[in-house]
Amino acid sequence: MDYAAKLIDEHRIFADTVAAVDPAAPVPTCPGWTVQQLFRHVGRGVRWSAQMVADRATEGLDPRAVRDGKPPEDPEAATDWLMDGAAKLLEAVDTTGADIAVWTFLGPKPSAWWVRRRLHEVVVHRADAAIAAGTGFELAPALAADAISEWLDITTHPRPGAAPPLEAGQALHLHAHDEGLGSAGEWMITADADGALKWSHGHGKGSAAVRGRSVDLLLAITRRRPISELDVEMLGDDAVWQSWLDRTAF
Asked: Around Cβ 67, how many Cβ atoms within 10 Å?
């Protein structure tokens, strides 16, 4: 997948989605936020990552220290600001070197890691904007599936002091039935006897399983829509699924 091209494309679609909504409208999936705040969060966030990559950061940057971290008031200028931020990230990775390690909240990673992370950040926040607008949200199956995989990388990473999303011995299976995804559309998440989590692509029997289109699975696993509002099938112990959602909130 061309993450760089997708990063630009998704920021553009996000900007178009936001432009059609009242900036003061609430964002139901981000309680307490308005559409304007959501826009600023996405735009500042991509600049935040770009600045850390450019500086070869070894520790996290205070978001308040992001250069040009506030969008202009003029809507067209604000869109330019958003798109320029995405371009700055790609430029920073190219200049720094895609394989050069920089700070991330999961530990040091190659700078190119941030391109995929910010891509899926804007994808999910585009869903937030669409929900605020009352419009539909669609995503190519391959991109939605990759977003799920990237989200699992984050949510299965140990979080000191946090309860594990699955209890020891439990397993969660996700199955996207979009045509052509193959094994990339199946995920097994398991907790071993010590509660350590891991995930892999593949089919298996879980304590709970959720089946549907990849875009619907993404909306479900990121808590953008409850499964009761999506065209998905829930099998097994729904308490396991609910525990997973409750314990993977960020």
From this structure: 10
- What's the CA gap between 220 and 224, in Å, rounded? 6
Q: Bigger pLDDT: 205 or 104?
A: 104
pLDDT at 250 over 90: no
pLDDT at 225 over 90: yes
Q: How far apart are CA 207 and CA 71, in angstroms?
A: 46
Q: Is 78 helix (H, G, I), strand (E, B) or coil?
A: helix
CATH of domain 141-158+165-247: 3.30.1050.10
pTM for the model stands at 0.96
Angle among Cα 105, 109, 111 to the nearest 5 degrees reads 105
CB 53 within 8 Å of CB 102: yes
Query: What CATH number is given for 3-133 in this structure?
Result: 1.20.120.450
Q: How far is CA 157 from the centre of its chain?
A: 15
Q: Which two tokens stand for residue 222?
A: 């990121």
